[in-house]
Amino acid sequence: MFEDIRKKxxxxxRALEEGDKKAxxxxxxxxxxxxxxxxxxxxxxxxxxENKRTVVIQSIKGLGDDWIIPYWGKxxxxxxxxxxMSIDRREALAKIFx
Length: 98
Fold this sequence. Notes:
98 residues, alpha+beta, four-stranded antiparallel β-sheet
């Protein structure tokens, strides 16, 4: 049973990564994702709208614990530069740890 759940999480994460890569290739923040450390893991949010100084993020389910950041909730508008820094940090860590 757990093996099936793990496979589902992996499929969902690969789909998230593919969407992120596509949005990056299109030079768009919409479709990129950020992750925010929470409890013993991370909460994952996808950017669903880009404004001049902010982005709208929406929580992503099906990636593990499905944490939701209390101060953001399921959907929030956050500073665009914070989102960009979060994406840059995630990509830098991926380069280091592969």
